[in-house]
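Protocol step 4 of 6: record predicted structures for both targets in the notebook before any analysis. Target 1:
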Amino acid sequence: MPYLVAAVVLLALITAVNLLLTLGVIRRLREQSTPPHGGHAPADPPAHGLPLGARPEVFTATTADGEQVRDSDVYGMVGFFSAHCTPCHTLAPQFAEQAKVMGRDRVIAVIADTDPELAALLAPVARVIVEDYDGAVQAAFHNSWTPWVYLLGRDRRVVAAGGRMADLFSEAPA
């Protein structure tokens, strides 16, 4: 009988220590997830390229049709897509529909790597640039995510950006 009492007391002590350690971990996690000064964490998704108001850096690229495109030529809509990227293929038809409305000269589609299906969909409505993931246009926009789309004003500043078409036109001024 004394062994049973000792085992129950030992088990109770181990359980109590485990509970204290768990509460300490929860408290630490709450402290790390709360921003300083009691504010709220931003609800905006992380940026994957240029922030609002920024301009793309200087670049020169050649479209799939052999046309030269410079940063100074770019205003309107710019979309970044990756080859064989399922979300890119989901977004591309919506991008193409909006490109038809805006006009081909105001739309650039950048496809990282070779994807004939994406190029065939976008080429009739956009100037398509096929380049590596570290290509000139990707670098000029500091783009690190696909699909990612930008809306640039006539002054070439980013008016809206996001991973969905709704991100462009819900944030853009009327």
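Target 2:
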Amino acid sequence: MVIGSMTSAMNCIVIYDITSTRIRNKVAELCMDYGLNRIQYSAFAGRLLRAHQQELIRRAADKLGKHAGRIYLYCVGEREWSQRLEHVVVGQSATDGAPPQPDRDECRPCSSSPT
């Protein structure tokens, strides 16, 4: 039995692929209720105790019910988390059909905490 993993918060990434917009929004709200930060439309990151990880995935699964979808929760160790990278393009969205016009385009190490 590993006592440390039961009592200390770990970096977690929650990602999901849910076809129902209503259910997808409920799972997003649930992730935010647990203090996770949205990093993509269907991806959240933050620190959670093991008990909260289990509770979150159970509650998300309850919301999914019989609807099509998948929900994953990955734990990431401190060392791996500190080595993560991000690529950021800040600028106009390409939703109007035009290519994005980046104000800034860079790939860099992440220095911020997930919470």
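Step 5 preliminary note on target 2. Residues 50-64 form the longest helix (15 residues). The first strand starts at residue 10 and ends at 18.
Proceed to step 6 after PI sign-off.
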